[in-house]
Design a protein that fits this description.
Layout (H helix, E strand, L loop, with lengths): L1 H16 L4 E5 L2 E5 L10 E4 L8 H15 L5 E3 L5 H9 L3 E12 L17 H12 L6 H9 L4 E9 L3 E11 L2 E9 L8 H15 L4 E7 L3 H10 L2 E10 L1 H4 L3
Parallel strand pairs: 8-9
Antiparallel strand pairs: 1-2, 2-3, 4-10, 5-9, 5-10, 6-7, 7-8
Length: 256
Amino acid sequence: MQHLASVRRLEAVGFRAWPAASIQYDGSWQIRLTAGHPSKRLNSVNPLDPSDHRDVEKRVERAAQRFRAYGRPLVFRQSPLAPPQLDAYFDAHGWRRFDETRVMMAEIDQLDLEDVLDHLPIREIGRYVDASIQVHGRDPALKPGLTEVLSSIRPEAGFFVLEEADTGPVATALCVHDNDMAGIFELATRADRQRMGHAREVVATALRWARMRGAEKAWLQVEAGNLAAVGLYEGFGFSDIYRYDYRQAPELSAHG
């Protein structure tokens, strides 16, 4: 039960840090939809009670109707809070499982945050969004949607950009300080500047900023297959708390 309590707290902190535009509930299933941004975390069904598994087939279809209205593919995000019976339903109907993600945490005062320069967070969201899109190599058409998401964050947020005078932004990270928790999001290094220590520098800077504001625990979500990022975080001192993955119906998977 203690494990599930930790999962519930981290899930709630994560939802506040990466807020969806529309949140509805079907029982304890949280249905998150965001017309302006395609992120799976912003467009997924999130079951939040392992015992809530009644009328699975009807509720999956109701969720599908809502997602169709938004023009989004139906995706379930399955954390340890999801009922096992729901995974069994997906298995029986051929739903694929993909993008396993590790949720990691550490005590900030036990992390190695030294030996890097400090950088102040930037105040202008638009400037951060431009840098993030450039560093990630994303479509500039995402700017309005990403700006809307970041502007909706209610806890204190620090927007960090490392820049080179001659080439511009090389690394970005978002740090959300929520009571005693500090979450790291959107970490990226520009493709031509990877493996040069920029990611470590921007993460250490962001967590020092959060520590100065009273955060005691650091946490993050990283795709299990991103071995470089996992190695970076383990090098800092992060360790796994739980994992989640996504499920999608076979007819949707066939269309990407």
